[in-house]
Amino acid sequence: MWLVLLAALTGITLMAAQFRSEEVITDVQAEVLLLDKGNNLIMPDDIVKTVVKKFGPLKGIAIDKVDMRSIEEFLATSPYVKEASVFLGANKTLTLSIRQRMPVMRIVDNHGSHWYVDADTVRMPVSRNFTARVPLVNGDFPVTNDVKSWPINSLFDIALMLQDNEFMGSLIDQIYFESKEKIWLVPRLGPSKILIGNTNDLEDKVERLRKFYKKALPSTGWDTYAYVDTRFAGQIVAKRRLNQ
After folding, report:
1. pLDDT tens digit sequence for 134-174
2. Burial of 201 (0-12, 13-18, 19+ CB in 10 A)
3. How far apart are CA 30 and CA 58, in angstroms?
4. H-helix or E-strand containing 98?
5. CA pair distance 96, 119, nearest whole angstrom
6. Residue 54's CATH number
7. By the 8 A CB rule, do 158 and 182 touch?
8. C-alpha separations of 146 from 7, 25, 124, 163, 174 in Å
9. Is the pTM of this model over 0.90?
10. Do residues 226 and 241 make contact, with C-beta atoms less than 8 angstroms apart?
11. Residue 82: which domain range?
């Protein structure tokens, strides 16, 4: 009885394998998990074109001839891709599912080149599809692909604070890195620049800035000060413009 059952299962398996070998890919499509506000660093059509260029036309190819793992590994080499999954979808459609990396800041290095850095400190080229609304960061940055060799933790602390704090996120356009102890913020309104110093006690510095903008500037005038300094505990030091 066991031999008969084993033979039956073997037969079914062989029949299924033979049936699968006769099935072919009917279409290739890409699904991209959108970033905030429905934006894409990479477009689905571009993903399909890239895969076809690398692996050849897949439509009409027998399913068992398609190495889905190799396609996943290839997609994961893109600096825009955080995770890639390839599977057979409805109607034998080969689906390329992509989770994009989320830009945290846009860097301008000493050669004037622009690129993004994501939360995993992965360097990403600027996309031709859209411009992410993230802080512009420039300053004393050597030209290197090794982002982790920079003071990246301090920059992340500030960039993530700008994401989480609605007031600061709407106020600040740019971060300028002079040194680890002299990091500047460039606001849209008020003084030309804000000296944060280092990122120690960053939450307290932000709260003092909020009070300064809400209470002091409306009475003294938005253009009264050239810059403000938050480095001293419990206070804001403000430098008046020359014509004030």
Report:
1. 889 988 766 666 666 666 778 889 998 998 999 999 999 89
2. middle
3. 13
4. strand 93-100
5. 23
6. 3.10.20.310
7. no
8. 58, 40, 12, 24, 22
9. no
10. yes
11. 21-100
